[in-house]
């Protein structure tokens, strides 16, 4: 770093898998790297008990995996700043100012790795039983429902695709749709309905789940008749998957990037956005598969691209 008014060569917003993978690659390329994280490092994965699909690690807790991402980046010289980023400015001199709730930071390059959050539907018990019967990710948690009954909430493409995927594990999949029809394309719906393990509750909402350590009951409301009813099961014998959409966290820099149909940031193959020096990596991008491995891969590419950008910028 040559300019003393800069805090780093690259600032990375978000200390999840994408952010710390970017930090590993940028730090190994000798850049000075700051990762700004508002909460517990590790991102979304730190909130789950078991991760069984990160290659080369058969089983690990999400918290430990998140911590290892951070430790690896910091061992290479990256530093973590614990603060919430409240605004991002692209200055006339082409540098970036990152405004946090504590300080302002400056760098010639910025990687946004702010992640995404699954949309919740708001029934009673949804938050309480998250990770103990309520899930938002079939790829992550489908395995844990082998031989069990599963309810899928949602009427869109993701709900149909994930319901079909869940039949690889579950004994039975019941799709709960708010309206009297699906929003997903007809071809997808027809393929789903042809699966003998799948049935549908139309015009129905889940209003409540209850349980002990895991779930034992689920309450429904028929949105046409107003009828409500409860289904009881042995504790832990069923699960609920919610597919109501994903919210990529783009508010901070929405003016500096282009967004895709899923609300995620559109990037070039090297994670570049329409603003020179600004890269995006991980779940915040517009993409098909939001997982640790894809976030880490994005981060690796963004960290390398930031190095190339900063090298040119310094000339
Ligand atoms: C319950 C659950 C279970 C999952 N299980 C699996 C699994 O088994 N296997 C798998 O591969 N994937 C799993 N996933 C998905 C995986 O966690 C994500 O795909 C991955 O974490 C995305 O990484 P990311 O770095 O892009 O974003 P995130 O992990 O979302 O990290 C973004 C980080 O940015 C920070 N941040 C956001 N805004 C700001 C701001 N303004 N200022 C400062 N910091 C900010 C956040 O606090 C967060 O730490 C699971 C997800 C969930 C929710």
Automatic annotation (TrEMBL):
Keyword field: Disulfide bond, FAD, Flavoprotein, Oxidoreductase, Redox-active center
Pfam families: Pyr_redox_2
Top-level taxon in the UniProt lineage: Bacteria
Reaction(s) this enzyme catalyzes, per UniProt: [thioredoxin]-dithiol + NADP(+) = [thioredoxin]-disulfide + NADPH + H(+)
Database matches in SUPFAM superfamilies: FAD/NAD(P)-binding domain (SSF51905)
Segments forming domain FAD/NAD(P)-binding: 9-299
Name of the protein in its database record: FAD-dependent oxidoreductase
Originating organism: Enorma phocaeensis
